[in-house]
Design a protein that fits this description.
There is one protein chain. With 316 residues, the chain is of the alpha+beta class. It has two domains: 112 residues, 3-Layer(aba) Sandwich (Rossmann fold); 173 residues, Sandwich (Tumour Suppressor Smad4). The protein has nine helices and 18 strands. The strands form four sheets. Strands 6-5-18-15-8-9 form a six-stranded antiparallel β-sheet, covered by helices on one side. Helix 6 crosses helix 8. The chain is elongated and about 55 Å long.
Length: 316
């Protein structure tokens, strides 16, 4: 029986390109049966993925950005149906971390390959909803909020750099009241991130080199005011303008001195609650959630993803 692939496409993602021609050519050459569904509103991607898994397809493929990927992935939790990522967004951070080709034809070949490696990945939940990358509070969320669809369509990843520059003008410092696996901690900073993936949009470039999407833990990072330039370097690294430089880490951060930028605090946990003072904007995998308290949990090995190999990318 031919391999069956259900493709879910976010038509608002990516740039103008003949994606159907490419998909049709690659899947026909591979001898697979495939069908396509389009998302129209929030929630469609998750529902379509659930329906496809229930029909017993061999692979659910998603063409879209990281937000669409996260939504499709959430629909596959609890099933054994693997996810194939066809990068179609602005940054495509998860596909970069997993080594999935940015070229659509090559990504389709991977989806159609019955010998592709199936890698189990963790997911996180924020207030009950799933995420695959990270939850960002404060500076990072404000940066995402200002990089709207029109700006991303026009400038691509440069939209995030532009937005970061706007937010650097008057950065807001907040107090973060953290509960990490039952332990109460307070920290001040520009941004707090609860990460499942630490990739910053370039192969081998991570917030913290030890962050792993399959280790059964979430990584909590608070970047301080003193590290404003460090965070700007991280944003710039997404666009290729700068590379993150290693530096010392403050005592008590829990991170070895050679494994993180300076002036941050870092913890690992299975459950995290964050209350900010004052309340700050929250983003999750590129989607703005508003100014809310967040409760996050890790869901170990929640989904299976088709990848070229199991090796973790080398860090720089």
């Amino acid at each position: 029986m031919a391999r069956r692939i259900q493709v879910i496409v976010n038509p608002a993602a990516g740039q103008d390109a003949p994606i159907l021609n490419i998909m049709n050519r690659i899947f026909r050459e591979a001898g697979v049966e495939w069908d396509i569904s389009l998302t129209k509103e929030a929630g469609d991607a998750r529902r379509l993925a659930q329906e496809a898994a229930q029909r017993g397809v061999d692979v659910v493929a998603v063409y879209g950005g990281d937000g669409t990927v996260a939504e499709v992935a959430s629909g596959l939790v609890g099933s054994q149906v693997p996810l194939a990522i066809l990068p179609g967004g602005t940054a495509n951070v998860l596909s970069v971390e997993l080594g999935i080709p940015a070229d659509l034809a090559l990504a389709c070949q991977l989806a159609a390959n019955p010998e592709a490696i199936v890698r189990p990945l963790d997911m996180g939940t924020v207030n009950g909803d799933y995420f695959v990358l990270r939850v960002g509070i404060g500076f990072e969320a404000a940066m995402v909020e200002k990089a709207d669809r029109e700006l991303k369509d026009k400038y691509g990843v440069l939209a995030y750099l532009w937005s970061a520059m706007q937010n650097l003008y008057k950065p807001e410092i907040a107090k973060y009241h953290l509960t990490i696996d039952g332990q109460s901690i307070e920290a001040e900073g520009l941004t707090c991130m609860i990460a499942n993936s630490g990739n910053m949009g370039q192969a081998g470039l991570n917030l913290i080199p030890t962050i792993d999407v399959g280790d059964g833990l979430l990584d909590v990072i608070v970047i301080h005011q003193a590290s404003l330039q460090t965070f700007f370097d991280l944003v710039g690294s997404i666009t290729g303008f700068k590379q993150m430089q290693s530096a010392d880490v403050p005592a008590g951060s829990g991170v070895p001195n050679d494994m993180a930028p300076q002036s941050l605090q870092y913890w690992q946990a299975k459950e995290v609650t964050v209350v900010t003072e004052p309340m700050q904007t929250v983003q999750c995998d590129g989607e703005i959630l508003g100014k809310i308290e967040v409760q996050c949990k890790v869901v170990p090995h929640a989904i299976n993803v088709l990848t070229p190999n199991l090796a973790k990318p080398a860090t720089t």
